[in-house]
Amino acid sequence: MHQNKEGSKPYAVLQLRQEDIEGRIYGLVGFQTRLRWGEQDRIFRLIPGLEKAEFVRYGVMHRNTYINSPIVLTPALQFKNNPRIFFAGQISGVEGYMESAATGIVAGINALRMLTGENPVVLPETTMIGSLITFITTADPDNFQPVNANFGLLPPLTQPIRDKKLRYQAYTQRALEKMDKFSELFLKSL
Ligand SMILES: Cc1cc2nc3c(=O)[nH]c(=O)nc-3n(C[C@H](O)[C@H](O)[C@H](O)COP(=O)(O)OP(=O)(O)OC[C@H]3O[C@@H](n4cnc5c(N)ncnc54)[C@H](O)[C@@H]3O)c2cc1C
After folding, report:
1. Which domains does the chain possess?
2. Cα separations (Å) of 42 from 23, 36, 54, 57, 113?
3. Which H helix or E strand runs over 27?
4. Helix (H, G, I), strand (E, B), or coil: what is residue 102?
5. What pLDDT is stored for residue 4 in this prediction?
6. Which of 65, 86, 95 should be mutated for ligand 1, with most atoms under 8 A from CB?
7. pTM of this structure
8. 167 phi and psi, to 5 degrees?
9. Where residue 137 falls among pLDDT bands split at 50, 70, 90?
10. Which of 31, 58, 85, 97 most suits a substitution to test ligand 1, by most atoms within 8 Å of the C-beta?
């Protein structure tokens, strides 16, 4: 880790995200908290550089509202009770920008395929999007919690690899190969 101007090593790094064009307002990333506002004001001012900051908004806990996808959704992200309804994004139990956008694309493709009388697309579970959707549609419905994309969702490799970097490369390679074959089939069906 780099040394700061004073020569000491920082032991924590805060991300400040610019929130206005002029650069006067910054969001403190990861500060969703239940602390009372007075306490937040006191504690955040202990952070070097923020002693004189003006706080325009304090941190609050956010709550994800989501459906019980393992019970109500098919692997095509279609609502079992009404196939004309598709779910994607946060409400379906994925978390994150990429995850929400990716499931939105799958749901969009499937909505169009339904309208044109084609079978829905179900992505291979060895791909990250496929494994995410497999998770949200097959997880234990009693303990269902939103999930981010992560390598732990993918089915294990046939040959276990101890080295993490090599293992992740192997997962990626397997997904790309599967996706290539899948795309060929998918394009043929159009
Ligand atoms: C404080 C915070 C920080 C985050 N930081 C990150 C991050 O750094 N990286 C990351 O990947 N993810 C982050 N996330 C998570 C990410 O924001 C969400 O996972 C993602 O935005 C969900 O996308 P979505 O399209 O499913 O839902 P949303 O982005 O919530 O979009 C839903 C939309 O539907 C609209 N809507 C709601 N009800 C109705 C209605 N009845 N009629 C019409 N419209 C309606 C809402 O106004 C909203 O525009 C963060 C979330 C929070 C709360």
Report:
1. 1-62 (no CATH), 69-188 (3.50.50.60)
2. 23, 10, 12, 14, 55
3. strand 26-28
4. helix
5. 66
6. 95
7. 0.81
8. -65, -45
9. very high
10. 97
